[in-house]
Write a structure and sequence with these properties.
By secondary structure, the protein is mainly alpha-helical. It has one domain. About 25% of the residues lie in helices and about 0% in strands. It contains 3 helices and no strands. It is globular and about 45 Å long.
């Protein structure tokens, strides 16, 4: 699966031996990473019923989508468009 640069993502392993491997376009930059509570109903993710998710400490402490928006963690649509335009023009991966 390909996820575009800067796109939010989540996964749920349904077996004990599942493996998730990332291939990133640039080195890890923790200052560019932001989290949103993956179980926030506002996201509209249809997680499997009857499965109790185990979240990492980072994900368990992540704010709701609304709180992330209110606190300025989420870029505006215009900032995202400008960011992608810069990528298409050969610019670096500076976050919006």
């Amino acid at each position: 699966m390909f996820l575009a640069e800067g796109l939010g993502h989540a996964f749920m392993a349904l077996t004990e031996d599942a493996t998730v491997v990332y291939l990133c376009s640039t080195g890890y930059a923790p200052e560019r990473e932001h989290g949103v509570d993956p179980l926030d109903p506002a996201l509209g993710i249809a997680w499997p019923e009857g499965v109790r998710p185990v979240l990492s400490p980072k994900d368990a402490a992540a704010p709701s989508l609304e709180r992330a928006r209110e606190s300025g963690l989420l870029p505006s649509y215009a900032a995202c468009r400008a960011y992608y335009a810069g990528l298409r023009a050969g610019g670096g991966p500076a976050a919006p």
